[in-house]
Design a protein that fits this description.
With 105 residues, this protein is mainly alpha-helical. Helices cover 59% and strands 0% of the residues. It is built from three helices and no strands.
Length: 105
């Protein structure tokens, strides 16, 4: 059954709105945290601007290499621990099928 109810026209919202609506009110703590976040961000940018571009590039590369080294160390350690756990498993023997009640006598 088809009804002939009027279909309301829809208006398309812009693909990228220019402003994002914020909550009606922020608590004083929320405002403080936001200001501190911006302050730290700006301080970081200020310190970064003091460094020559070559130092910035090589520092980033050094950090990436350091992280990669730690990643390999942690992965290697985990692999070693897993291997040792596999080797530490107790294999069942023909005597392990004896009931506990018989062994406790």
């Amino acid at each position: 059954m088809v009804t002939k109810a009027p279909v309301p026209e829809t208006t398309k919202a812009p693909a990228h709105p220019k402003t994002v609506e914020a909550p009606a009110e922020f608590s004083p703590l929320d405002e403080f945290i936001e200001h501190q976040r911006r302050a730290v961000d700006e301080a970081g940018k200020a310190l970064l601007s003091l460094l020559p571009e070559g130092v910035q590039t090589h520092s980033e590369a050094a950090i990436k290499e350091s992280v990669e080294g730690y990643r390999k160390l942690v992965n290697s350690t985990l692999d070693d621990v897993i291997e040792r756990l596999k080797n530490a498993k107790i294999e069942p023997t023909k005597h392990s099928s004896v009931k506990r009640s018989e062994t406790s006598k």
